[in-house]
Specification:
MetI-like fold; about 0% strand
């Protein structure tokens, strides 16, 4: 136990690199929030567009979503950061990570929202249309409120999984927690910063997990 403490709990090294870990935590929070907002919003927009059942648009959405769900997020990040410059598009590590994870979350969110829309009974559509509401009004005011509540549990779980993938940004030198911990390990020749980084992830994401449970309990549809 003493040898473990000397190796992984070097308090002097931890104190030296703690500010860098905190800096990385702030970057992680920024990217995660941006991913959640853009990913869920764009996924909802695609599901609504698909609800109009325009054949070409629906086919394009399905193909795009399937491709994004099939590709590992790390592959997408690497492609955006290293491949796009070959065609004249230069993305920063922050933008490449944010855009990649947003697209992945968008793909999963679209499928989740679409499943929620399909789960709303057909009678709800017919009753709303019979009162004189347009298709868009029916979708917005009658169907979506029910569909969104149906999708809260799977959407919450998927969002948590995607936001934890911010650690993949370390591959393209994004200064988030893992990158800062690895850099500190390289400079100090001591793994204590890695343990400090792991603790930082726990501090950030355990509240997110409990918040997700609260959202599911508070807003999920109760049949």
């Amino acid at each position: 136990m003493g040898r473990f403490a000397d190796t992984f709990l070097d308090w002097a090294v931890m104190a030296q690199y703690a500010p860098k870990i905190v800096e990385g935590a702030w970057v992680t929070i920024q990217v995660a929030l941006a991913v959640v907002i853009t990913g869920i919003a764009s996924g909802l927009a695609l599901a609504m567009l698909r609800a109009f059942r325009v054949r070409m648009a629906s086919a394009l959405i399905v193909v795009t979503v399937d491709v994004l769900r099939a590709l590992p997020p790390l592959v997408i990040i690497v492609l955006f950061y290293f491949a796009l410059p070959a065609v004249g598009v230069q993305l920063s590590a922050w933008v490449a990570t944010w855009l990649s994870l947003s697209l992945v979350l968008m793909a999963f969110a679209e499928e989740i929202f679409w499943a929620g829309i399909l789960a709303v009974p057909k009678g709800q559509w017919e009753a709303a249309r019979s009162t004189g509401l347009s298709f868009l009004q029916t979708l917005r005011d009658v169907v979506l409120p029910q569909a969104v509540r149906l999708t809260i549990p799977p959407l919450t779980n998927r969002t948590i999984v995607i936001t934890k993938n911010t650690a993949l940004g370390a591959v393209v030198a994004l200064g988030e927690i893992l990158y800062q911990a690895q850099s500190a390990y390289s400079f100090s020749y001591n793994p204590s910063p890695l343990l400090l980084g792991a603790f930082a992830y726990l501090v950030l994401f355990i509240p997110v997990v409990y918040f997700g449970r609260w959202v599911e309990t508070r807003f999920a549809w109760k049949r």
